[in-house]
Amino acid sequence: MSTPSLSDLPIRPLTRRDVLACADLSEDRGWPREEHKWGHLLSAGTGYGIDAPDGGLLGAFVVTEYGPRERPELGAIGMVLVAERYARQGVGRRLMRYAVEQAGTTPLTLHATPNGRPLYEELGFKVTGQAETVRGHFLPGAAAPTVATRPATAEDLPAILRLDAEVFGPDRTHVLTRLPAFADRLRVAEDGGALIGYAAAWPNMDTHVVGPLIARDTETAKALVASLAATTDRPLRTDIDVRHEELLTWLKEHGVAGVGLNAVMNYGAPDLPGDWTRRFAPLTVAAG
After folding, report:
1. Are 286 and 79 in contact (CB under 8 A)?
2. Using CA atoms, how far apart are residues 76 and 266, in angstroms rounded to an integer?
């Protein structure tokens, strides 16, 4: 029996039963396995993959849509991976073309590594910003943040959703309602009884990833990060919009170093919706 060509292999939706195969694919490319993150992405979003003739997945990606289910306002693409043994054979290009076709008129966004950026540019994605990945053990400073924070409760969810809709734009209730199960810690900041920010820290391999990070201003963002850092011995990791220079400088002064830059790229829209001045970090670069 002849081996089918890669272009003939079907692209199929992934389910949570594919988490281990997705983690194997990550590991094959030298990425962390990130089973916890894959599980969340395949619950809150939709994964697509191609089964390899010799077993496992030969390629995959995830798209998380925001806004009304019947007419999404934004799709975030992430975890675009091709197994090493099938690299440089057009699989990544095929997967991304499929993603664009599936989206129809829905604008798309993604965070591109330097290696992936040329392909995305070829397909029509435009660079609209940058995010800096920072990582390290947070070292508390002498001056404590002045904004009050506390652990979030179930009663905070409506206020979190209202604030997030103001800042992010498209509705992402289906993602935020999963945060208490996905994240180890979820904190809110208040001023006069009004919620002015929230942030989560979720476990990923040996780190705690801070995201989403939504805050009224930089001081509020600092207070949320410091309060999350105080509850873990793990290094922190987060991806900060480079326009938030003050927060990035403060993080680096507290032991969290820059480890890389990713381009924020859009397709079908000149920029991301919402208010970037209060959007400091995404839940994950794979989901916006």
Report:
1. yes
2. 9
Q: How far apart are CA 37 and CA 286, in angstroms?
A: 9
Three-point CA angle 87, 88, 92, nearest 5°? 75
Name the token pair of 33: 């396995």
pLDDT at residue number 4: 66
pLDDT computed for residue 280 by the predictor:
98
pLDDT at position 276 is: 97
For 20, the enclosing helix (H) or strand (E) is helix 19-28
Report the interhelical angle of 245-253 vs 218-229 (nearest 10°). 30
For the stretch 158-182, what's the b/e string if a residue is b when 16 or more beta carbons lie within 10 angstroms of its beta carbon? ebbeebbeebbbbbbeebbeebeeb
Q: Is 71 exposed, middle or buried (0-12, 13-18, 19+ CB in 10 A)?
A: exposed
Residue 15: predicted pLDDT? 96
Q: For residue 277, which phi and psi values (nearest 5 degrees)?
A: -65, -20
Residues 96-148 have pLDDT tens digits of 999 999 999 999 999 999 989 999 999 999 999 999 999 999 998 766 778 99
Tokens coding 182: 């996905």
| Residues contacting residue 213 through CB under 8 Å, at least 6 positions apart | 197, 199, 221, 224, 225, 238, 240, 279, 280, 281
From the CB of residue 191, how many other CB atoms can be counted at a distance below 10 Å? 12
Cβ-based burial of 39 (10 A; exposed 0-12, middle 13-18, buried ≥19):
middle
Backbone angles phi, psi at 88, to 5 degrees: 60, 35
Q: Hey, CA dihedral for 93, 96, 102, 104, is it positive or negative?
A: negative
- For residues 280 and 211, give the distance between their C-alpha atoms in angstroms, rounded to a whole number: 9
**Which segments of the chain have a pLDDT < 50?**
1
Helix 19-28 × helix 35-44 angle, to 10°:
130
